[in-house]
Amino acid sequence: MANITTRIDDETKRDLKKFSNEIGISVGSLFNARVKNLLRTKEVTFKLDEDFLEDQEMYANAESLKEQGVRSVASGRSSLVI
After folding, report:
1. CB atoms closer than 10 angstroms to residue 42
2. InterPro entries given for it (predicted)?
């Protein structure tokens, strides 16, 4: 078994731990399930809805992310799921 380390802000970590406790799944299990789903489906989805984007850096990069996605779909490396 391998470990992956990532940095998140304290509030996000607290909210994630609270959520995982509410649904009865550990944070590690949440990440493992998400990664397994990612590998199974080969899909990465992001909701780029301005109302939900609290992280201004991500919002600032939204147009670039959209352009990368369009290029990826156009090249045949990805598929668009709507």
Report:
1. 8
2. Arc_rbn_hlx_hlx (IPR013321), RelB/DinJ (IPR007337)
